[in-house]
Design a protein that fits this description.
The protein has 17 helices and 21 strands. The protein is of the alpha/beta class. A seven-stranded mixed β-sheet has the order 13-14-15-12-11-17-18, sandwiched between helices. A six-stranded mixed β-sheet has the order 8-7-6-9-10-20, sandwiched between helices. 48% of the residues are buried. The N terminus is likely disordered. Bound molecules: NADPH dihydro-nicotinamide-adenine-dinucleotide phosphate. The site of NADPH dihydro-nicotinamide-adenine-dinucleotide phosphate (NDP) has 30 residues, from helix 8 and helix 9. The site of NADPH dihydro-nicotinamide-adenine-dinucleotide phosphate has 30 residues, from helix 8 and helix 9.
């Protein structure tokens, strides 16, 4: 057992401690068990103070022209790029992920999202006229006002890119933002704040509150105007209920169980490489990981053979010591979850293609595991694992693959591989998921223009893209007169028998058959 497990009783790689009488969280590197930092467990009052300071800073931020806000945020982007090595080192250490993944999956998408939003936000958030089909004597437009303070609660698997994406969107719209990072990976968000403050941006505009679940609860109850939550389904249920009680809107980015369909005409080499990357990047601890594969019977055997070969070539180890493909698992509990699913599958007739056990020695490592001959009686095909384990099931047709892909309570991402793009798009539209990607894996979260989020129990609301940026702001409607109107309103007081009769005639003239309203576009 690793030093980490010994210190935290198997609960996680963050452990409680005290510092001068106050409670603290200690953060350990999962690859080595090394203690890398300590943060306070903030009380409800301390959380409220951070939110209150953010609210004050927001007032001055909100009145800046959007172009100026964007210019200043681009300086933050430049600082992130300048200090990328420092961020990557800490990310890799605190999560145990390979440095390539810290760079490509975390730092780069944030540099890109900042660039995209800062370039496009003035256009996206510009007031928009609404074409009125009936009230032609009036005009309407929407404008996008800052909400105030946005709360962000985020998980441990991408502790930089996930919260920072929401931070950027909130700041661009003129809000302040307070982040509650996972107790397991609190240090990286504090590093982001240090870089933010060093660029001369208003210090309290970005707040970070540290602690356990109650700190997240305190954030929800602190008077924030919106919450973006990313985490598991069960926590999401409690958090959504708390947002309901506080009557604040929320975005729920919850778990996934992404299927990958390998059609009979797929490019075998591309599909095999994609299964391995999609299944084992970040040791499978990705909400959009490939967790289940449905392979057409004509490609099933060769695909499994090639996947086994590719998995055999993966190098695993401490990412701080050398460039590895597979890093550590965040904490021992995740390993136990993987073991439970593997035992269930093997007990029900699955075949172990490779992997299947934890790696002996220091740190929390687990072998990338592929199970063949799987079916939907096994939890490996039905429940989120969030680890380096994937199940493969043989199917006889595209229809069967789509039916099985949809046989899930989750619907975040899905993948399918075929050389026939028209068929790929047709099938993609039949799959119940927020995003379906054809002939590629994982990429969609990094597409700044595309909305990201789930359906079913994978959550609701979206991040990224134009609509999500507008949603981060408060959409307000203004309606005004196009020309001067007579003092008395023809549909107002007094309500007489005569005016009622006129209204009834008006209803028929406007709406029956091809009434005036249907033809109104041609009239004006
Ligand atoms: P959890 O749901 O356990 O925790 C998420 C966050 O919620 C943490 O910061 C946690 O704090 C906090 N929290 C816990 N209890 C409460 C509470 N009562 N009120 C407010 N906040 C609370 O998720 P994990 O950190 O384990 O992350 C893994 C999950 O996240 C997986 O299911 C994965 O699929 C999902 N995920 C979804 C993504 C998406 O975009 N849809 C992306 C990435 C991950 P603490 O850690 O201190 O307990």
């Amino acid at each position: 057992m690793s030093a980490v497990s010994t210190q935290n009783n198997g609960q996680g790689h963050a452990a409680a401690g005290t510092n001068g009488g106050s409670q603290t969280i200690k953060s350990y590197a999962p690859a080595t068990g090394e203690l890398i930092g300590e943060v306070p467990v903030m009380s409800k009052e301390q959380v409220a103070q951070v939110v209150s300071r953010a609210r004050k800073a927001q007032r001055a931020w909100a009145v800046l022209p959007i172009e100026e806000r964007c210019d200043r945020l681009l300086r933050f982007r430049d600082a992130i790029v300048d200090r990328a090595e420092e961020i990557v080192q800490l990310l890799s250490k605190e999560t145990g992920k390979p440095r390539h993944e810290a760079l490509i999956h975390e730092v780069m998408p944030i540099a890109d999202l900042l660039t995209y939003y800062c370039k496009n936000a003035p256009r996206i958030l510009a007031p928009r006229e609404i074409e009125l089909h009936l009230f032609k004597h009036r005009k309407s437009y929407l404008h996008y006002a800052p909400r105030g303070v946005i709360g962000v609660i985020s998980p441990w698997n991408f502790p930089f890119t996930l919260p920072m994406g929401d931070v950027i969107a909130a700041l661009v719209t003129g809000s302040a933002v307070v982040v509650k990072p996972s107790e397991v990976t609190p240090l990286i968000m504090l590093k982001a704040k240090e870089i933010f403050d060093a660029t001369g941006l208003p210090e309290d505009l970005l707040g970070v509150v540290t602690g356990y679940g109650p700190a997240g609860q305190a954030l929800i109850e602190s008077g924030i105007q919106k919450l973006v939550f990313t985490g598991g389904v069960e926590t999401g249920r409690r958090v959504a209920a708390a947002c309901g009680a506080a009557l604040i809107p929320c975005v729920m980015e919850l778990g996934g169980k992404a299927p990958l369909i390998a059609c009979s005409d797929c490019d075998l080499e591309l599909t095999a490489h994609s299964i391995v990357l999609g299944g084992f990047a970040n040791a499978g601890q990705v909400c959009v990981s490939v967790e289940r594969v449905y392979a057409h019977e004509s490609v099933y055997e060769p695909l499994i053979r090639r996947v086994k070969q590719l998995v055999g070539e993966l190098k695993q180890g401490d990412p701080a010591k050398s460039f590895v493909d597979q890093g550590a698992i965040i904490f021992p509990k995740q390993i136990e979850v993987a073991e439970k699913h593997i035992a269930d599958a093997l007990g029900k007739g699955a075949e172990l293609v490779c992997g299947g056990k934890r790696v002996a020695g220091t740190g929390d490592f687990f072998e990338p595991t592929v199970l063949a001959n799987c079916n939907h009686e096994m939890t490996v095909m039905k429940e989120e694992i969030f680890g380096p384990v994937l199940g493969v099931q043989k199917v006889a047709s595209d229809e069967e693959a789509v039916r099985l892909a949809n046989d899930s309570h989750l619907g975040l991402n899905a993948y399918l591989f075929t050389k026939d793009r028209a068929k790929g798009k047709r099938m993609a539209e039949q799959i119940e998921a927020g995003s379906v990607v054809v002939n590629e894996v994982l990429i969609n979260h990094a597409i700044a223009e595309a909305p990201f989020g789930g359906i079913k129990q994978s959550g609701f609301g979206r991040i990224h893209g134009e609509d999500a940026l507008r949603e981060m702001a408060e959409t307000r409607h203004v309606n005004y007169d196009r020309f001067a109107m007579p003092g008395s309103n023809p549909v107002g007081y007094p309500y007489t028998e005569k005016s009622y009769g006129l209204m009834m005639k008006g209803l028929r003239a406007l709406f029956s058959g091809r009434g005036i309203v249907q033809r109104i576009g041609q009239l004006f």
